[in-house]
Amino acid sequence: MVKLFIVRSLVFAILWMGYLYEHFQNTNEFSLLLFISACTIGTYFFLAIVKEPLILYILIDCLILLEEWLYPLPKNMYVLLLFLYIYLEAIFQLNTRKFRLFTVATFLCSVAITMLFQDKEVEWLIALGIFSIISITLNEYVYEREEQREMYEQLLGEYRRLKRLNYEMDRSARLEERTRIARDIHDSVGHKLTALLMQLEMLSINEPKKEYDELKKLVHDSLEETRHAVKALKTEENEGISSVLQLIRKLESENHIMVHFTTKQGVLSVKLSNQQNIVLYRVIQEALTNAMRHAQSREVFVTLGRSAIGDLEFSVKNRVFEPKLFQLGFGLTNMKERVKEVGGTLRIFQTDQEFVVQGTIPVKGNSR
């Protein structure tokens, strides 16, 4: 956006310099001419910082016409070029209703100037009227395409949300099925192995034999393996950093976002509880979703590290081209509450260049 504004300003400055050069070649009165020129240029630079530029566009056209009225030149093509340039900018900057008001105000101002000039040709008004009609048609087309683009972005966002929801539902269904299988194994195989081990204990007491000891060891090992299998089935498929990697891989594969993922020394060996793993995953997921919705850039920087006291640190940053005031919505507020529940901290702030989600999660066993 900054580069575009520089290019626009440069084009306007070149056209205005040519406009002034033509006047300086044909008149000796410069004071009022320079004053009006300064007002026009100053007004143009305010276009980039005001929310409603309609009045400024009308004012710029009126100043150009006023200058031409005070210092008329028979053949000054820069007037037409300036008018054309201001119209082109207004086409892309004003909505349909405001652009129509702009064209009407400019045309009425031109009519007033033409009535004051005896040497002005009526063809100027006819040409301006035709050009205004063409400009209105082009403006309607531009904003129709803009509305279509916004509708497409909304539909795309809804599609992504539904796709993520479908993914979460499939994942929940898999976890429920794994939990059911683990419960069945625990209730059937585990209990039967335990009963078998007790019977072998009783047999070995009544009739001590070496074979019974070997069978007890075999049953005991089988019972331990069954317990490990049940525990593995009850645990989520991907936890903590592994689930974050899967999330990033999924988003990049769908070309939604480009993530620069950095892990610092020691972070891969951090042991988190199941609740902390879920919080880490959800916070980074929400931060990436927030970046996809609101950031102008598709680049996001995710960093995981360890603090000086061994806690897990994380940050999610995305570039900001036009800093705007933001409020904590439901998603960001929910992120803070999740991190607070596990004893962590979360900071959400914005600089001139970045939007940052930054926080820590305490690691069990670290001294405070």
Give structural notes.
- This protein is 68% helix and 10% strand.
- Helix 1 (2-26) runs antiparallel to helix 2 (31-46), helix 2 packs antiparallel against helix 3 and helix 9 packs antiparallel against helix 10 (330-341).
- The chain folds into three domains: 2-120, no CATH class; 172-234; 240-361, Heat Shock Protein 90, CATH 3.30.565.10.
- The chain has helices at 2-26, 31-46, 54-70, 77-93, 96-116, 123-206, 210-234, 240-253, 274-294, 330-341, and strands at residues 258-263, 299-306, 312-319, 345-350, 354-361.
- The longest helix is centred in the middle third of the chain and has 84 residues, at 123-206.
- It is elongated, with a radius of gyration of 36 Å.
- With 368 residues, it is α+β, with helices and mostly antiparallel strands.
- It has a five-stranded mixed sheet with strand order 1-2-3-5-4, with helices on one face.
- The mean pLDDT is 77.
- GO terms for molecular function: ATP binding; phosphorelay sensor kinase activity; protein dimerization activity.
- Its EC number is 2.7.13.3.
What topology, given as strand order, has the largest sheet? 1-2-3-5-4
| Helix content estimate | 55-70%
| Strand-residue proportion | 5-15%
The CATH architecture of the largest domain comes to 2-Layer Sandwich
Largest sheet: 5 strands, mixed
Multimeric status of the protein: single chain
The first-level CATH class name of the largest domain:
Alpha Beta
Low-confidence stretches: none
Radius of gyration: 36 Å
Gross morphology is: elongated
Q: Gap between N and C termini, in Å?
A: 46 Å
- Supply the number of helical segments: 10
- Could you name the CATH topology of the largest domain? Heat Shock Protein 90
